[in-house]
Amino acid sequence: xxxxxxxxxxxxxxTAAALTAVALMFSLTACGLGDSGDGDDKGSDPAPAGSAExxxxxxxxxxxxxxxxxxxxxxxxxxxxxxxxxxxxxxxxTFQRAERDSGGFLxxxxxxxxxxxxxxxxxxxxxxxxTKVSQTGPSLAGMTLVxxxxxxxxxxxxxxxxxxxxxxxxxxMQPGQSLDFFAQYPAPPAATxxxxxxxxxxxxxxxxxx
Length: 210
Hints:
Blueprint: E1 2-4, H1 17-33, E2 63-66, E3 71-72, E4 78-79, E5 83-86, E6 91-100, E7 105-114, H2 131-134, E8 144-147, E9 152-154, E10 178-186, E11 194-198, E12 205-208
């Protein structure tokens, strides 16, 4: 049983002007221009997008199946999952696509499944620590990307109302239940072929970019 939650990713042709402005601002930040330093969000994640933060290794008891290059079909597009990670809590994320677009965005999408034997709520840590984002409710706003080549970390984009451009409205999932997810980021440089995906309480996944 698969369900779909949260906002849809930005359209490549019909993005509102205000949203584009905010997205581009985050894109510039993620490319190393740094934070404005106004300090108005004291409960936010301590590292701004694009900071040269080196992620640490975590012993979370989960497992990772990595296929960062996937397989290539007849049309030249990547087929099959890019990676699958399973947490000690039984939640499983399968990353199916990580696609750049002409607007300078990268959309990561896949399937979230409760592989455990009982009903459970997705960890609140997945929503991240930013106070302004927590008002949108349970989400995947805490999922970040790390480009180890440039040593930059990318955070989920926000719209003009500070809503994260990712799957929101997560709720209790029954055993075996799955849902589609997405998260949108500033696109890393074209030379970056893969990134690490970090989500609290889950193993690290390495996915290829297209």
